[in-house]
Design goal:
Elements lengths: L9 E6 L8 H23 L11 E7 L6 H11 L9 E5 L5 H10 L5 E5 L4 E2 L3 H6 L9 E8 L3 H10 L12 E3 L6 E5 H6 L12 H11 L4 E11 L4 H23 L7 H22 L10 H23 L11
Parallel strand pairs: 1-2, 1-4, 2-3, 6-9
Antiparallel strand pairs: 4-8, 5-9, 6-8, 7-9
Helix pairs in contact: 5-10, 8-10, 9-10
């Protein structure tokens, strides 16, 4: 058990839900890059420290579903493959049986010791400078939440298509801190005092989307949300056919749950779902046809990319339709 007698300045919370679906090497690369950047941060900030109380200290809390993944398997990844050392980044494994994506984040944050909490997904890989860029805005005591940027790695046909057509924006070179109205939970920093008041809301039946609900609540309460565009992480496209299918179905199901809870009678109707399908098709096809060069997509592969995006958004629509028909199976999808 890690000794947390010194209060950490930063607590990293990593859910292990996505790691179950992604290529194992992604989680290893994420942990290696995180430890490397923590070392860099400590070295830089120790130069300016005048006593031990000013020396940066971090902790890593990895939350996993003990019913799905043995702790020994994760510990082997941390020690044998990622090479984590307790001296640089003290870590603890927390089992949350039956917990999903957001419940695991909350489970870890509630047990964190740091004044700053950074949520990082188990399948994203930080780019160089990510940690320093997401921490820098907190030098201003008035800033309480900062989100970074996630973009899909444009690898292969699937990766290039999702980079163009999914909800993450294309990678760009923006650097200026800006205010935003929404954020994703895969690359997010909050002051502990803010998280204690605003944990991720629970919307039963969904896998994703709580971050969008939380962003709306914070905006309604006049909490400024900031985006550090240079705090970038690389996100994978769905890993394999099964993940592709389940991710599409779950995204549609979760969208309809949110519309029923927070939308209008129209937005939660089947005609609205059909409208979303048409809109998603038109927008994704337009993105493919006009921005294919941004991701290095061969022009000859444009029709294939249109088929991929069209199939995905039909699955999205099918997830909504299954919920309209109250097909119990759709409730069980976990991504």
């Amino acid at each position: 058990m890690t000794d947390f007698s010194k209060k950490p300045a930063v607590s990293f919370i990593i859910e292990w839900e996505n790691a179950r679906l992604a290529d194992a090497q992604r989680s290893i690369s994420m942990l290696q890059e995180l430890q490397h950047q923590v070392r860099q941060m400590i070295k830089r900030r120790e130069k300016n420290a005048t006593d031990d109380t000013q020396r940066p200290y971090c902790e890593l809390l990895i939350v996993f579903d003990g019913l799905q993944t043995p702790a020994a398997d994760i510990e082997k990844i941390l020690l044998d493959h990622a090479g984590l050392t307790d001296q640089t980044l003290p870590f603890e494994l927390l089992s949350n049986p039956g917990g999903g994506y957001y419940k695991n984040k909350d489970f870890g944050a509630q047990r964190a010791h740091g004044d700053l909490i950074i949520f990082l997904d188990s399948d994203v890989i930080p780019e160089p400078g990510w940690l320093e860029q997401i921490l820098l805005p907190f030098d201003d005591p008035a800033i309480r939440l900062v989100t970074g940027c996630a973009h899909i790695e444009p690898n292969g046909l699937i990766g290039k298509t999702f980079a163009l057509t999914w909800f993450f924006p294309l990678r760009n070179d923006a650097t200026l801190l800006t205010t935003v109205t929404s954020f994703f939970a895969n690359n997010l920093a909050m002051r502990r005092s803010l998280y204690d008041k605003y944990p991720f809301p629970d919307l039963p039946g969904t896998s994703r989307g709580s971050c969008l609900i939380l962003a709306g609540t914070l905006a309604d309460d006049n909490v400024a949300l900031y985006k550090a565009p240079s705090a970038r992480v690389r996100h994978p496209a769905p890993n394999g056919f099964k993940h592709f299918v389940f991710r599409g179905l779950a995204q549609g199901r979760d969208r309809l749950f949110r519309e029923r809870e927070f939308g209008s009678p129209w937005s939660a109707s089947w005609p609205a779902a059909m409208t979303r399908l048409a809109s998603n098709w038109v927008v994704s096809w337009w993105q493919v046809c006009t921005k294919f060069r941004r991701v290095g997509l061969n022009p000859l592969m444009i029709p294939a990319a249109i088929v991929v995006s069209g199939t995905y958004y039909f699955l999205y629509f099918s997830g909504e339709t299954m919920l309209f028909l109250n097909l119990r199976w759709v409730y069980k999808i976990r991504v």
